[in-house]
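Page 42, continued from yesterday. The earlier attempt failed because a stray header line got pasted into the input along with the sequence. Redoing it now with the clean sequence only.
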Amino acid sequence: MTTNPSNFFPGVVRTVADVAAISRGEAEIFELVRDGEYAEALTAREIHLNGSADMGINENGDLLLFVREGSGKLTIAGESFELSPDCAALIRDGEAWALSSTSPFKIFSVHAPGMGPYARKIAKPTIGFQRVVQQGITNKGKATGNREFEVLFDESRGSSGATMFVGFIPTSGAPAHYHLYDEICHIVRGGGTFVVGDTKVPIGPGSTFMVAPRMLHSVMNDREEDLWILGTFRPAGSPAAAYYPDGRPAPGYDEA
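This time it went through. Structure tokens are written below.
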């Protein structure tokens, strides 16, 4: 439960300071969550870029991006899309993509595999597609405690295998709870404490951690400003889908 660059298991918090950068053009890529010993695992990277970089071809599933800092363009098949802070983008399987920044980028990316028995089982038919989504355009929902959330990507915008959302945690935070999905979390703004059992780890912008299915955890906000947490989970569904330790659904979640 302490920061450890060699440990990629659930509950461990890490930042770019804990892993070595991989260069790709003018980009630096930090592998924050690798597949390790998990099959068909969600993986996550942070991309730092001041310039331009050909990022190659996205293979085997959806790649979801979130811009924490910076602005510039995402280019796919000759078409460019403006990126700015707090926006998200979807890159589909088989698409080649490139980035160029007008101010230095810090982009968090999560890859959701699309091949394999688990991916096939949980995939949802997409009912729409949107390349870029700006945070703030979607109505907020209610989650555990007095938290709110805003969905950025799910099957309604083209992501068949995962849901990406921003959660807004006010001062005090969320009580201990668990989910039936596996999730990668990334702190966008604010700070506080990630709690698993008796272990408490400070978190702030750039902190990243995994939450395994049924792992009891909580995120506490000890500051006056809201803590913004970016969550990406699968199977895709509602970020409100949470349970208290005794198995009761959290308020705001209807199992039906």
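Notes: Confidence is low (pLDDT under 50) at residues 1-7.
Reminder to self: strip header lines before submitting.
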